[in-house]
Amino acid sequence: MSRIQLFDTGIDMVMKMSEGNPGAVMAITELMGAAETIDPQSMLGSLGPVLALDTSEIYGSAIYILFNDKCNRSARKCLLLLRAVQLGIRPQRWLADLSNDQARRKSISDEEWSEIDDAVCSQLSEFQKAA
Predict the structure, then answer these.
(1) What is the per-residue pLDDT for 3?
(2) Whole-angstrom distance, CA of residue 34 vs CA of residue 7
(3) How far is CA 30 from CA 42, 80, 90, 106, 122, in A?
(4) What is the pTM of this model?
(5) What is the rounded average pLDDT of the residues 64-90?
(6) Which sequence spans correspond to the domains of the chain?
């Protein structure tokens, strides 16, 4: 069930989503700051990643794990995964399982990153290409 409500301020959203986890606050802030540059086709702009995380029911330490451990602190990679779920390239459950992997048993291979990247960029022509 979504935590974000229509009249929440930006600070309300960050606090609800991060559950007070400082790493999650940092991750959300970075994603919001980079979203419009990396994914200019997102009609939700900087709120897109926050709403995508909420839709996937990824909160608190799970946000930090996803951003820090799975995406190596890369806003582009994290936004890529969120869009891959939105576009049906990967299932929502896959992203939730990945973000809840506190034991760090799951990872994304270079080949899988490449496949996800190609699939997202083929559907979103303005999504920032990998360097």
Answers:
(1) 93
(2) 23
(3) 16, 14, 23, 23, 25
(4) 0.94
(5) 97
(6) 10-123
